[in-house]
Amino acid sequence: MRMKRLPKDFYEQPTLELARSLLGHYLVHQHPTGEIIAKIVETEAYLGAIDRAAHSFGGRRTNRTEVMFGLPGHVYTYQMHTHTLLNVVSGPVGTPEAVLIRAVEPIQGQALIDQHRPGLKPVDQTNGPGKLTKALGITMDLYGHSLQHEPLFIVEGEAVTDVEAGPRVGIPNTGEARDYPYRFFERTNPYVSKYR
DNA sequence: CTGAAGATGCCCT
DNA sequence: GGGCATCTTCAGT
User: Fold this and answer.
1) What is an example of a Pfam family matching this protein (predicted)?
2) Given CB 3.0 to 4.6 Å as the disulfide criterion, which of A45, A75, A131, A189 pairs with A41?
């Protein structure tokens, strides 16, 4: 398999374009017990200061959001109840934007995924932001990690043509921001998270 | 220090 | 369709 790592400047495009562009590329996690590769099939953009749904809305700068103010192409992980969620930091330094990875399709390392999420239909192992981090073994340890390095990075994958955009998921109390079409997904891909 | 809230998912009815 | 698990963060005392 061709494994061309996405260059630093890939992450420098505007956040909405980045969210769209990430679809089809392969997320690689070199887990201690083996390598897992999965194709990104669903993303959401969070536009920082001007986006009420973003943690960094209004320029809110805390320990948690700090990494979003830094270089694009780094990892913003955070905990949602019992789950870790994975974001890619976007926007130039000082502009706290990010792209949430919402769903992936396994390409390699199925045995490991089965180990992390046993007894489930394949589709149910990675069709959600909390599910995929568990399946790939991604934890809060990766907060601030650069995607230019091991053990977590993104390589060039496949072109995706049937992209659909729609409202983001799970942000009911964010006023106007609730309806912004900042969610992107491969329309025909069965691993896209279902609802909405 | 305490408590409330949350970009979720799973299990129950 | 509703309740709840279970963790971290952050604002308020």
Assistant:
1) Pur_DNA_glyco
2) A189
